[in-house]
Structures are given as structure tokens and as C-alpha cells.
Amino acid sequence: MRKSKKGSPKLPSIGYGTKRELRNIHPSGLKEIIIERPEDLKNIDPKEQVIKIAAGVGEKKRIVIIEKATDMNLKILNLGVFEEKQELTEEGEVEIPEDKTVEKNSSIVNGDKKSKM
To answer: What's the pTM value of the predicted model, to 2 decimals?
Structure first.
């Protein structure tokens, strides 16, 4: 692998990198900024930058960030993931018929028979 011999896969090298001017640029032409706290929104310019909420941000703080960002007319790139999750929680839990119960290992018990999902 270390030697560039015929038939071996190409190794990462300097020539494969993205140009410095184009790094962290969204296809819309705006610069992506990762937000971890609501205070990070203070320095954002809505004409030149869009935001992504960091993956490690919890639900409470995420809601605060989304509210502040919408008040500031900022575009949030990963808002769709949060909306899908929120729709699932609003619908409530899935109802299980009385004759079936769910165990911890996700198997359904029908009387004496066990059938794995």
C-alpha cells in the first residue's frame, strides 16, 4: 500500500484537497457555521452565512437555538432532522394490541410462541 505500484488503490495526497476559498461553503454559496450554544448566533451574518446545529446539542438547547435563529431570519441547514423527530413524538407512542407485549430485546410474545422481529 505504501508504495505506489500499478494496481494498488490511490492514496490520499495534497492534490485531492478542496481549495481553501471553497472549504465550508454550502452549495448555495453561503458559509456554513456550526452552532453549539445560543450565544454563537450573535456573530452570524444572514446574508453571508447559514447555520448547522451541532449533533451533540440536546433538545432543550436546540429549541432555544431554533427560536433565536428564526427571529434573526437565519437559515438552518439541519432543521429537517429535528422536525421529523418532533413529528414522531407528537403522534404519541405506537399502540400495541392487548394480546401482544413487547420485551426488552424487541421480540413479540404471542402466548407461548416467541417470534423475533
So the answer is: 0.61
> Per residue in 91-116, pLDDT tens?
665 454 555 444 544 444 445 555 45
Q: Are 47 and 66 in contact (CB under 8 A)?
A: no
Region 29-41 average pLDDT: 94
Say how many residues make up the chain. Answer: 117
Higher pLDDT, 81 or 54: 54
Q: What angle do CA 28, 13, 10 make, to 5 degrees?
A: 105
Sequence spans of domains, the chain: 18-94
Write the Ramachandran bin of 7: left for phi over 0, alpha for psi from -120 to 50, otherwise beta.
left
Enter the C-alpha cell of residue 75: 437559515
